[in-house]
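subagent[fold] <- orchestrator: predict structure for attached chain, return tokens only, no commentary.
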Amino acid sequence: MPDIEEKYGFPHCTGHRSSLAGGLFNGCKKEKAIKFHFSTALVRVNSFGPRPSITLKPRDGDEYTLEADIVLASDGIKSVTRTQMLAELGTESQEEDTGQAAYRIMLKRSEMEHDPELRELIDSDTVVRWVGERRHIIAYPVSSKQIYNLSTAHPDIHFASATNATYTTRGSKSAMLQMFEDFCPLVHRMLNLVPDGEVCEWKLRVHKPLPTWVRGSVALLGDACHPTLPHLSQGAAMAIEDGAVLAEVVSRIPADKVHDPETITKTLKVYELLRKPHCTALVDLATHSGRILHLGEGKAREERDREFRLNGKNGSVPDKWASPDVQNMIYSHDWVQEAINRYDELYASL
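subagent[fold] -> orchestrator:
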């Protein structure tokens, strides 16, 4: 994707998720108004308004209750907030199995540099995807090319037969190797570098579209309201955009209305109106991209492979993460500017 910077003003970069989280954390530490409470779990939402109340439980302490003007719940695919919000609306939280799971692997440079082909991979500025029937692997260097990150998508076998609700498990190296036994020797050499006992497998789940992201003075964001398959690499990106839009719309609340529940609810609904259609479209597109990547033998796969060979000359490729038309939809849109432009119109409509 050599023209990304020319088109959108910034280069395409890969990075370790801990680097992103660390950068966000360091930015927050510079803000005096932000206070962190680590190792503390949300037990329940006691009320969604007019002044929301939540109960929290420190790992090594007693429960306590906290009130706030606004609660923003980014508590993930297993969101306690979402479950209670939907219960108040008379419906249930409906997570969905996708039939897919993922191995996530990080290989060190020291493990790869002895092999010329592996060293070429970690020294590259390239994202590689190996595609097979019902399975694929995507990989790229991170951490100044000191780590090679691999993430797979493959049929969910182990979680489907499990008796508990876990989304992660220690996997079997032999099972992982068997899953990708018909992939190329280069893939086999990388997978064989994973130490025995250090294979981790994730269950990939999504959620049925929600009737609302907002109740009272409480709003959901990120995986709590739009969990997605990873095939567009947009999960964290959508959550960050949610946060940016929330910051913009909340900053529009007049000083004399910052404690007014009706104004807060309307403002949070503006956020939902701005973000929900776009996020829903990307979640659907990620699912569609996975189906296309995982096609078995037949006419549909032949057509997909023909489009791959065209390499985007018709403006689209089957791997939607790398497709120019999808990149334009994602990268060209400034959501903060959208919030600035449409806040008054959307607020007045409520």
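orchestrator: received. Logging for downstream: The longest helix spans residues 261-293. Residues 95-206 form a domain with the D-Amino Acid Oxidase; Chain A, domain 2 fold (CATH 3.30.9.30).
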